[in-house]
Design goal:
By secondary structure, the protein is mainly alpha-helical. It is 49% helix and 11% strand. Pfam families: Peptidase_M78.
Length: 173
């Protein structure tokens, strides 16, 4: 999926979520069942589509910073890759970060969680990338992915850093 289509789809859902940005409610509103489990050791989240149900499984130890990022990433899989998950995406597939689907889910999450104009304004005001991430309560790698996508969308942004696209894989709950 191209950057513009990914951005547009995430923006539609961002509007649907409204000012509360309650992603758990958003998931319910679009028909995704979100289930938490304490038995996951390394798994942060997983998306699957079984029969006529769509499910996101989340590690119940995710904190207030990581829960929205992982949930937004999994909603991205629902919106962008549902056909790949007809029989369930296994953990090894979901977190194989060298795949296009994982990058797209991260890009979708960046658009769902981070407003482009707010990010751009923060940079124009002189904030560095780490400060933008801290002010928006997210991982710096998600901000870097957002900036890369904003550049692709035509924003006048020159990146000197690159995102670690495997940042979700490296988190331990």
């Amino acid at each position: 999926m191209n950057s513009l289509a990914c951005y547009q789809r995430a923006t539609q859902l961002r509007k649907l979520a409204g000012p509360s940005h309650d992603l758990l409610q958003l998931a319910a509103d679009i028909g995704i069942h979100v289930l938490f489990d304490s038995g996951y050791k390394k798994l942060l989240g997983m998306y699957c589509s079984l029969l006529k149900g769509r499910f996101i499984f989340l590690n119940d130890r995710l904190d207030e910073t990581w829960l929205p990022m992982v949930l937004a990433h999994e909603i991205g899989h629902d919106q962008l890759h549902r056909s790949l998950a007809r029989y369930g995406l296994q953990e090894f597939e979901l977190f194989r970060m060298n795949s296009r689907t994982e990058y797209e889910a991260n890009a979708f999450a960046s658009h769902l969680l981070l407003d482009s104009d707010e990010v751009y304004d923060a940079l124009r005001e002189g904030m560095d990338i780490a400060s933008v991430a801290q002010s928006m309560n997210c991982n710096i790698n998600l901000v870097l992915i957002k900036l890369n996508e904003m550049h692709r969308l035509g924003y006048d942004i020159r990146l000197t850093d690159t995102a670690d696209s495997a940042f979700l894989k490296k988190i331990r709950s």
